[in-house]
């Protein structure tokens, strides 16, 4: 995907690093399944295997960054519908109160195998929280995808 900007490539690298929970530089089948599960995407082993094989162009059994970038680049940066964004938001908003709190963000990241410090979680919320109320609204969440 040579048409990605440096910023877009960094965003994809950050997403890749969330999937690559053991920091091996590759996404294994178990890592892919764990992240999909953490995002409440219901898949069976056959579906995970199929998804992995579609992305794994060198047939190594794992997804490296270039394979991830090729597979995800076009869809990752497409404009998402409000419904798609709302569905994603609902996966984070565990108590359905219309906001993502630091605890909810931490919980989903832990389910993905990511252990961030409380300071890192709070800094992430602050970076997205344009209203200053200490939580992420749906509109603030949507700005991530503009």
Overall number of strands? 4
Q: What's the assembly state of these chains?
A: single chain
From the helix content, strand content and strand pairing, which structural class follows? Answer: mainly alpha
Strand count, sense and barrel status of the largest sheet are: 2 strands, antiparallel
- What is the terminal separation in angstroms? 20 Å
How large, in whole angstroms, is the Cα Rg?
A: 16 Å
Could you say what the CATH topology of the largest domain is called? Recoverin, domain 1
Backbone shape:
globular
CATH architecture of the largest domain: Orthogonal Bundle
Helix content: 55-70%
Helix-strand string: HEHHEHHEHHEH
Mean pLDDT equals: 86
Q: Beta fraction of the residues?
A: 5-15%
Brief write-up:
The chain has about 150 residues and is mainly alpha-helical.
What does the secondary structure layout of this molecule look like, with pairings?
Blueprint lengths: L5 H14 L6 E2 L1 H10 L6 H11 L7 E2 H12 L5 H11 L6 E2 L1 H10 L6 H11 L7 E2 H5 L4
Antiparallel strand pairs: 1-2, 3-4
Helix pairs in contact: 1-4, 2-6, 6-7
GO molecular function: calcium ion binding
Protein name: EF-hand domain-containing protein
InterPro entries: CALM/Myosin/TropC-like, EF-hand-dom_pair, EF_Hand_1_Ca_BS, EF_hand_dom
